[in-house]
Amino acid sequence: MDFSIATLKLEERLPLELRALYERYGYRKYRMSQFEEYGLYLENKRFLESEKLITFHDSAGRLLALKPDVTLSIVKNTRGSRKAAEKLYYIENVFRYAPTTKEYKEIAQVGLELIGTVGTYEAAEAVTLAAKSLAAIDPDYVIDLSHIGILGELMGGLNAPEQVKKSLLKAIRQKNLHDLARLAEEGGIDRAFVDSVTALTAVQGDLAAAISAARKVCPAAKEALDELEAICAILEAEGLADKIRADFSIVNDIEYYDGVIFQGYVGKVPHVVAAGGCYGKLLQKFGKDTDAVGFAVYLDGLSRYYPTSAFSVDAVVVYEGDPAAALAFADRLRAQGKTVWMGSTPPVELRFKTMYRVGATGTEEVTNA
Length: 369
Description:
Pfam families: tRNA-synt_His. The protein is α+β, with helices and mostly antiparallel strands. Helix content is 37%, strand content 27%.
């Protein structure tokens, strides 16, 4: 087992590879504290995946929270503007509440943000880097792409309370057309809205064909579809056409997002591994007149699906009496590129290929897996 970056667990290797990737594109590392003032998250709780935070008071009496998110901190502190963009990446752990286990989890994330004027190229660069990030995990990956302006056009014409709109968006996100129809009927919303959403969310797959079909379903979204088409042209030039597909059921909060949105998947993982989009409206809430685009890659648990090796070490060397002979033997194995655990007793719960006992009578191979 020669040591190289490839022998590291995926969660250990990826940050190194992605850091190098992002820096080649001019992004610089952003470092943040483990916590922020609670008010930052309270005022933007809809941007977060969960409103439940780990909070505490500092010595000055301020209410702080362990960070559940990195983007809000970047937006708060960025110097990026329409005249001078800032490109940042981060490697951080965030703390989030998991509804399924009802426990807080520490989740490793790698991501990037571009704060400044975001045009067709900048949005396409973010999607391209998300694609390259997924490829570093598994060449069998796909990115689902949409534009918040498409559903935004359909939702914008609704005369319905905000809570009803939230419920409708939730049904769309879950692809639950039965609930969508029920909610629309209960809210007195025209059936034409349900028919349009049903037709739109059924449009998936090839980008060019999907955009063409979406133009017929939602002609009012011409500007958003034109932008999406221009972004797709750049992605095609980058050789990513077969890795990007349309999915107009992707929903992010319209209060924060204002452009392309996307989700990324890899072959062996049954859930979203990367997600992002354009979120200029969030900048406006901070009083900053500029755009933004970014994404995060979720590293938590990837090694369960992509184990590096069936073995923790190649060999275990157990010495009896004087360790000198065993040490010399272990060093010879290491010189051959093998990983070796050495001690006076066998290890606890360590997966290994071969065990050797070295004592006064010589070297004995005990286990040969």
